[in-house]
Amino acid sequence: MLYTSQTLEQLEHIAEDFAKTLIPPCCLLLYGNLGAGKTTFARMLIQSLTSKDTVVPSPTFTLLQTYDISKNHSVQGHITHFDLYRLHAEDDLLDIGFEEYSHEHICLIEWPERLGAFLPEKYIRIMLEEDSPTTRHLTIESIGFE
Question: What is the pairing mode between strands 106-110 and 78-83?
């Protein structure tokens, strides 16, 4: 699926519509250059599954944040948001419990290039590309599913 967003409001609608299609457990890998909008998309997706009032800081320094999915949403459980930008070594994933979190509920990962051997067999790849300060192209595709 290919989407183009000209505004933050359009990006938010894409995130909301996409969130309605998720069936846990699933792993979402967010690819894109620095500033492409990965964290913004992640924030909008998480807020659509939890609440618009949910504070969603970038987990750049903590590496992960976990949120409870709203009870009035069709999807139940948790969403874990990883930001691997500051990951020093692949083995550090074991220290933060990556394997435990990545197989449960919804797992959302920024900078998945750093997963190495921990790359899941099945995942949804979300590629964000920036055309201008407001325009984003999103390509969403399933990998490893039959």
Answer: parallel
Q: Which long-range contacts (CB under 8 A, 24 or more apart) does 7-12 make?
A: 7/134, 8/40, 8/134, 11/37, 11/40, 11/41, 11/44, 11/136, 12/44, 12/48
Q: What is the DSSP string of 93-136?
A: HHHTTHHHHHTSSEEEEE-GGG-GGG--SSEEEEEEEESSSS-E
Sign of CA dihedral 47, 49, 50, 56: negative
How does pLDDT run across 37-78, given as a tens digit for each residue?
899 999 999 999 998 888 887 777 778 898 988 776 677 789
Tokens 């790359």 sit on residue: 119
What confidence score (pLDDT) does residue 58 get?
76
Q: 135 is written with which tokens?
A: 């325009």
Contact present, 59 and 83 (Cβ < 8 Å)? yes
Cα gap 133→23, rounded to integer Å:
32
Alpha-carbon gap, residue 115 to 121, rounded angstroms: 12
